[in-house]
């Protein structure tokens, strides 16, 4: 799993208890997973269809830097399923895991699912070819 981006936990990201609000982290996961899926498929017309199990393991606090690890789990005809792990950059402790995030490629005019033309093998090869 590659950790591709980071965010700084700011005061407006906190809940009443002073830790990172769960809704904010879910917003970030959806955005980060979309960016990942969009880059993998080289497509912009993707919609979030499903987010499976979400597990919160630890808290993050103001000033913490969190990082997002994303990986391709499955590739369908018009869909891409990814997994996202959010961890504390400093401690490497997992904060949250969101599994089975499904994006569907749609035709922008009809808003109906449309094949994206990629296979799991192509995407795996694409990951190997990326500079480290």
TrEMBL record:
What's the superkingdom here? Bacteria
What does UniProt list as this organism's lineage? Answer: Bacteria, Pseudomonadati, Pseudomonadota, Gammaproteobacteria, Alteromonadales
Q: Which InterPro entries match?
A: Cytosol_ACT (IPR040170), HOTDOG_ACOT (IPR033120), HotDog_dom_sf (IPR029069), Thioestr_dom (IPR006683)
Return the CDD domains for the record. BFIT_BACH
Q: Which PANTHER family match?
A: ACYL COENZYME A THIOESTER HYDROLASE, HOTDOG ACOT-TYPE DOMAIN-CONTAINING PROTEIN
A Gene Ontology CC term for this entry? Answer: cytosol
List the Gene Ontology MF annotations in alphabetical order. long-chain fatty acyl-CoA hydrolase activity
Output the GO biological process annotations, alphabetical, semicolon-separated: acyl-CoA metabolic process; fatty acid catabolic process
Q: Which Gene3D superfamilies match?
A: Hotdog Thioesterase
- Keyword Transmembrane helix found: no
HotDog ACOT-type domain spans which residues?
Answer: 1-109
Keyword list, A-Z: Hydrolase
Residue ranges for the region (Disordered) are: 109-132
Q: Which family does it belong to?
A: Belongs to the acyl coenzyme A hydrolase family.
Residue stretches of biased makeup (Basic and acidic residues): 109-123
Q: Pfam families given for it? A: 4HBT
Q: Does the keyword Translocase apply?
A: no
Instruction: Return the protein name.
Output: Acyl-CoA thioesterase
The record's listing under SUPFAM superfamilies reads:
Thioesterase/thiol ester dehydrase-isomerase (SSF54637)
Membrane-crossing ranges are none
